[in-house]
Amino acid sequence: MGNPLSPMIADLVMEDILDQAVEAVPFPIPYLKKYVDDLFLALPGDKIEMVQEIFNSQDENLQFTVEREQNNRLPFLDMVMTRNQNQTITTEWYMKPISSGRFLNYRSLHSFHQKMNVAFNFAKRVYTFTTNHREEEVESVIRRQLLVNDYPNTLISRVINRVKLHRQQVDTAMETNENRPDEGETVFRSLTNIDGLSQQIIKTLRREYPTRIATKTTNTVGALLPQIKDKTPNDEQSNIIYKINCDNCDGCYIGMTTTKLKTRISGHRSNVRRLTTLREAGHTNADAAIISIREKTALVDHAAENDHVFRLDDVKILDRTQKPSNLPILESCHIYNTPHTVNKRTDTDNLNVVYAGLLHSIMNVKRTKSNNQNRPNVNMTQTDDTDTTETEHTTHE
Questions:
Q1: What is the C-alpha separation between 83 and 89, in angstroms, rounded?
Q2: Boundaries of each Reverse transcriptase domain copy (predicted)?
Q3: Contact between residue 301 and residue 294 where contact means Cβ atoms under 8 Å apart
Q4: For the purposes of burial, counting CB atoms within 10 Å of the CB of 17, is it exposed (0-12), middle (13-18) or buried (19 or more)?
Q5: Nearest-5° angle of CA 88, CA 91, CA 94?
Q6: If I label 357, which of 100, 111, 178, 233 is the partner at 20 to 30 A Cα–Cα?
Q7: Tell me, what's the pLDDT at 45?
């Protein structure tokens, strides 16, 4: 379980068992289809038990069960196969009785593009798997299932029309034997879905690079369920962006580290102690020894220039990543987006103008939300002269 080779190994084992079992059956099986470990066979009614025994005798650890057709109907995967009087087979989309019929809800935090794709692919499956119903009946099934998942009627109609157009295009392409043109090498990346921002980023990247962006949500099962493992202490974490506030002013220092945070903070303490020792020895900011210390980090430079002290015992982690190569760009973004930083201007010089524009938009959104939250609520009370009931309305700006 969990091994990426498991599906391929299971398929190979099934192929081997299937070959042996078919050879052991004393008559030719007229119809046999396989999908991983699900088999669909057409057999004489009085030979079913014998064939099952032959299949189960191939390996004592692998035993097959049998489901017979009922009223000439037999479910197989997402379809119901119907045997007609002329011995032809027609199909229709099938959902198990125990299924809730729920998939990605329209009110979820996923992007609109993902919801449209889920609805479109579901409708396409229903159309593809159904061969024995009129088009109106197929549309009724699609509409009923999408309504259960809160998709609006207008959107469902768009999805159905889109599926019809897609099927027409596929049929035309098959008739003319057209091949899709080579689109060249495309880079695929994922991006957290943020309403109003992710689509701007995707549009900007499409203009500059041959990139396909897939959005994802942070509201996952793993994020909702409590953590099983103990949380790693802050000073033991690595590959992070951190912030240290100045104790004497509004300034703060933004830094990054690929090692443990406590190791990096220990380096800052060492530099500050060295600066203090030189000051006590009578050195000034013009001396080469202090100039050398000030060049190490902007934190020491600010402390030496203004004789300030930083809160090295109160360090805040701003961001983390699994890829150390992402740290420089993350650090530049946080420096750009944080007011009153003591970091040098050169720390953001390599920030692309695209990121600068997006970060400016984020700052405006944060500023607007902060202003709205700080506004007092306005309470208005309205009393009806003919009734003693008092209704209170609260308006949020």
A1: 5
A2: 1-108
A3: yes
A4: middle
A5: 150
A6: 111
A7: 86
